[in-house]
Specification:
By secondary structure, the chain is mainly α. It is built from 13 helices and three strands; from the N terminus they run H-H-H-H-H-H-H-E-E-E-H-H-H-H-H-H. A three-stranded antiparallel sheet has the order 1-2-3, with no helix packed on it. The chain is elongated and about 60 Å long. The N and C termini lie far apart (64 Å).
Length: 310
């Protein structure tokens, strides 16, 4: 973070330290550096624009920032406006807990009703097309292993890309993997054999072998001479090319989590089983998640149509 809050009187350090503490807490709770980086950008942009310390900020200034035109030069969507307000409000709730301010200016604002596009999941035929579009190069084999692991485990992007050699555990005929999930939750699951075999094949293509690699080495090497893994941005860029080559609409990495849930539901798993598979906090979350993917079946319209004579 290179920007400082513009505070007259040289009190910027106090507020900068508050932001650092807030972001550290947010990182521990969410387990996502992407969230921390996003909140950091929004907070420093906001306070750098208003030029006031947090205890002097007014609700109208939060409103102006939340609805203001960003770096893209376009009017923000309702989702973006809501995200900006949520970030600033969360920071103020933290400051109130720390005794640094007495009120949250966001409490006076009405949150916009967000209308995000419904999540999409790939069907089995789409996954096949995508895998066929990948080249048989070390990079292509590595990305194939990542896609298979995402699809077969249903894990989130960071949970998969952060996997290291030491996270794999051989237990009899099965291979288990450990992961750090959302909110710092740790889990251990069986790694499906096709994903494990794809990982072995991709590592061999880079001249590596699980038995000789160090526990802290990434399962997804960026090159043959590196133990560091591929970054999320690089994988996303590759993925967009693969979608285009496969003739599929562009999508983000999270679509594989949607796909994993949908494919398991189509295979006959109950909502309870899918909920456990996804590590959702409640069955209600999974119900909404699947309803968005599948749509709701209407079993009554035929009776209504018959009653009104159509």
């Amino acid at each position: 973070m290179t920007t400082r809050i513009l505070v007259p009187g040289g009190d910027a350090d106090r507020w900068d330290q508050a932001i650092y503490a807030f972001l550290a807490e947010k990182g521990r709770r969410s387990g996502s550096m992407r969230t921390v980086e996003s909140y950091s950008r929004m907070l420093y942009r906001f306070f750098g624009t208003v030029g006031k310390p947090p205890d002097l900020v007014e609700a109208s200034e939060v409103f102006g920032y939340a609805h203001g035109i960003g770096l893209s030069g376009k009017q923000p969507s309702s989702t973006t406006v809501g995200a900006r307000m949520a970030c600033i409000s969360s920071f103020y709730r933290f400051l109130i807990r720390m005794g640094m301010v007495n009120a949250n200016p966001c409490d006076r604002l009405e949150r916009p009703r967000a209308t995000p596009a419904p999540p999409r999941g790939l069907v089995a035929a789409d996954i096949k097309k995508l895998l066929e579009a990948l080249p048989s190069t070390p990079v292509g084999l590595r990305d194939r292993a990542i896609i298979l692991t995402l699809t077969l485990t249903g894990r989130r992007r960071t949970e998969v890309l952060n996997l290291k050699v030491g996270d794999l555990i051989n237990e009899g005929d099965a291979v288990q993997y450990t992961y750090r999930g959302k909110g710092g939750k740790r889990g251990k699951r069986e790694l499906p054999q096709p994903a494990f075999q794809a990982i072995q094949q991709s590592l061999e293509a880079f001249g590596k072998n699980l038995t000789t690699m160090e526990p802290e080495d990434s399962l997804w090497p960026s090159s043959a001479n590196s133990e560091r893994g591929i970054t999320g941005g690089t994988f996303y860029g590759n993925l967009r090319r693969y979608f285009k080559q496969a003739g599929l609409p562009p999508a983000g990495v999270h679509i594989f989590r949607h796909s994993a849930a949908k494919l398991r539901r189509d295979a006959g798993e109950s909502i309870e089983e899918v909920s456990r598979f996804l590590d959702h906090s409640s069955l209600a979350v999974t119900t909404v998640y699947l309803r968005s993917l599948e749509g709701e079946q209407d079993n009554t319209w035929q009776h209504v149509a018959q009653a009104i004579g159509i």
